[in-house]
Design goal:
This protein has helices spanning 42-47, 85-101, 109-124, 129-143, 175-178, 205-225, 234-245; strands at residues 2-15, 19-26, 30-36, 53-59, 68-75, 162-165, 172-174, 186-187. By secondary structure, the protein is an alpha+beta fold. It has two domains: 2-76, Beta Barrel (OB fold (Dihydrolipoamide Acetyltransferase, E2P)), CATH 2.40.50.140; 81-150 and 188-245, Up-down Bundle (de novo design (two linked rop proteins)).
């Protein structure tokens, strides 16, 4: 049994003296693990950094076996972010969230493509990367079957002045419909409604991105992870903490 595919390294964990168990997000085979011989050696450590893209060949005697990977680096992503702790935190969070939430060995072509687009934004250092990250998590929720309904207010049915999301139903709520329950609702950033990069609901674009991270983080944890007795990975928690501590320049340029 064997196949070859393009993959994104999600993690590499030492196994035995010299090998590593590597999790890849592949284009056609989904999240898939395999053993890489010599994976903790000096040559392979640089290849198996989370976020790097590889061409992988997987072999096993039976389909249900762990199997072995042979990997070749096709694009080094992680090295470009080493001097930028916030973007590096974004990369680590994306890899950790994908590994924890995506079912193993199920094709997720859309998630693979969206993850590559996120990695492009992170590597380029574009100011929009935090918006891309929040949208990436929103798309991941939809692919997992937990998509949010942001088209109209759950209370009034109106599509105007949508500023909140119900933490239970995942439906948008307008400012008028929130009423006395507004303190119990999650904030809805305008950029998730297509209101430009920053929207008009927040005076501070950084605060809007933090609200987006809190929104998607809530549903990832409560809908995708908690039913399996799991919580958000530490890397995702650190991303929000680093973002909150960072200083802004040029709008939402929260890199160094």
């Amino acid at each position: 049994m064997q196949w070859a595919d393009d993959g994104i390294v999600l993690s590499a964990r030492k196994h035995g003296e010299t090998a590593a168990i590597v999790q890849l997000l592949t284009r056609d085979h989904g999240r898939h693990a395999g053993l890489v011989r010599g994976g903790v050696g000096r040559r392979m450590r640089g290849v198996l950094q989370p976020g790097n893209e590889v061409r992988a060949e997987w072999r096993a005697r039976l389909p249900e076996h762990l199997g072995h990977y042979t990997v070749e680096l096709t694009r080094a992503r992680a090295a470009a972010l080493m001097d930028d702790p916030v973007r590096l935190a974004g990369l680590a969070a994306a890899c950790a969230v994908a590994e924890l939430t995506l079912p193993e060995r199920e094709p997720h072509v859309a998630s693979h493509g969206a993850t590559r687009a996120l990695l492009d934004a992170l590597e380029e250092g574009a100011e929009i990367w935090p918006y891309v990250y929040v949208r990436w998590e929103l798309g991941l929720l939809a692919e997992l079957g937990f998509g949010l309904d942001l088209a109209s207010c759950a209370v009034t049915g109106s599509s105007k002045n949508l500023t909140f999301v119900s933490p239970r139903s995942g439906r948008a709520v307008s400012d008028e419909g929130a009423g006395q329950y507004r303190d119990r609702l999650l904030k809805l950033p305008g950029f998730l409604l297509g209101n430009g990069a920053g929207g008009d609901e927040f005076n501070d674009p950084k605060a809007e991105i933090e609200a987006g991270l809190e929104l998607t983080g809530h549903f990832l944890e409560h809908s995708a992870l908690r039913p399996h007795d799991q919580t958000l990975p530490a890397a995702r928690t650190r991303l929000l903490e680093r973002f909150a501590r960072s200083t802004t320049r040029s709008g939402v340029n929260v890199g160094k």
